[in-house]
Amino acid sequence: MLFGTGVGKRHFKKAVDRNRIKRLSREAFRTQNLPLKLALREASKQLQLFLIFTGKELPEMPLVAEKMRTILEKLTLEIENRSHA
Fold this sequence. Notes:
- This protein is an alpha+beta fold and 85 residues long.
- It has 3 helices and 2 strands; from the N terminus they run βααβα.
- It has a two-stranded parallel ribbon.
- The protein is elongated.
- The mean pLDDT is 96.
């Protein structure tokens, strides 16, 4: 499974801010991706995931982690549903 993330320059002019958001996103993904990995392995599937941050304010880690959890849960359910259909 491959994961990437992007942050636009329009709302975050400083590279430091863009890099922070990307770092938070990668950490949230790393700590919560196990159920998705297991579902992919069980379904014998691969996944390439690229998320684009579209917010206008610099987020904190709890918010990023919560949103990442929601995204990964939806993806996991979709993969499980498609593999059992």
